[in-house]
Design a protein that fits this description.
six-stranded mixed beta sheet
Length: about 300
């Protein structure tokens, strides 16, 4: 802490000058503001930082004044509309005969962005850019709570890329990866940004939506069909993109077990796949099955969409 309280103006000035000599080249940003917010001093590091801020640091004193103690973590805007994350510590001093505040400012923007990037990596599928299973678990519960409060249905789409193993075996894993990325692109084009989209297996993608309008599910399925057919017609690929979908719907009137909803959508997808492709079965299951209700299958040469609705 620097305190320049003295009965001698000359001594105070000498101390102020010595202080400047010490901190001018310090790597930490050091600023001094008068009690009314007027800037009195900034070392070289602080001058560079202030030039990046949209308001040249004018909000620093006010922001710190509203902090709960003399240390605050602030997020301010930079000149290009981004964010600058700062940790600011303040001490009361006398500067050139005036009551002032000495601010030690640490720029944590880079470190914060690194942490955010690492967090995104932990919850994101590296190939498709969708959530991974961990990310799905993180956001699904909140999504469903919001839907329940709004009195809306939660709908789970379980989407399987048909024939991924055959694509990998015949054309190579790079082509299989391209097919998965293209499926993710289809999903991104059809569903809203606010819908939850996650790759939960090698060839399986889950989408959670809230059914906030009558017929939204049917509309989405029609758009998926159209988008896949359009891509197959225009791609020039040696293989067609083909998918199977299971759909499970849960109303807002009862408590929702998200794992159970996804399990039902998964089961519906395999039941639908078996309708379109006799002999297809879930891992560890035989093809034996009971009657299937509400299944629709459409299989033009360029596209295979198999749907099953199950209302929970």
């Amino acid at each position: 802490m620097v305190n320049n309280k003295t009965n001698s103006d000359g001594t105070a000035l000498a101390r102020d000058t010595a202080f400047k000599d010490i901190v001018d080249g310090h790597p930490e940003s050091i600023l001094i503001f008068a009690e009314d917010g007027v800037p009195l001093y900034a070392n070289a590091s602080a001058s560079g930082l202030l030039s990046r801020l949209a308001d040249e640091g004018q909000t620093l004193p006010d922001a710190l004044a509203h902090a709960s103690d003399d240390t605050a973590r602030l997020t301010l805007s930079d000149v290009i509309g981004g964010e600058v994350v700062l940790t600011v510590r303040a001490d009361a001093i006398t500067w050139e005969g005036r009551a002032a505040r000495l601010l030690y400012v640490t720029d944590e923007t880079h470190q914060t962005r690194q942490h955010e990037s690492l967090a995104r990596l932990a919850y994101t599928d590296h190939l498709t850019g969708l959530y991974n299973r961990r990310g799905l678990e993180l956001v699904a519960e909140h999504h469903c709570l919001v839907a329940a409060r709004a009195g809306e249905h939660v709908v789970a789409f379980f989407i399987d890329l048909d024939g991924l193993k055959q694509i990998n075996d015949r054309y190579g894993h790079h082509t299989g990866d391209e097919a998965l990325v293209e499926l993710a692109d289809v999903i991104g084009a059809v569903f809203r940004d606010s819908d939850i989209k996650a790759r939960v297996g090698g060839d399986e993608i889950v989408v959670l939506i809230t059914e906030d309008a009558p017929g939204r599910v049917d509309h989405l399925l029609a758009r998926i069909s159209t988008e896949v057919e359009r891509r197959n017609a225009a791609s020039g690929r040696q293989h067609n993109l083909s998918i199977s979908i299971g759909v499970a719907r849960h109303g807002p009137e009862a408590g929702l077990n998200i794992d159970a909803l996804l399990a039902e959508a998964d089961r519906c997808m395999y039941d639908a796949k078996r309708q379109a492709q006799p002999g297809a079965a879930r891992p560890g299951e035989t093809d034996a099955q009971g009657p299937v209700v509400g299944v629709e299958a459409a299989a033009p040469q360029s596209f295979n969409l198999a749907l099953m609705y199950l209302a929970l």
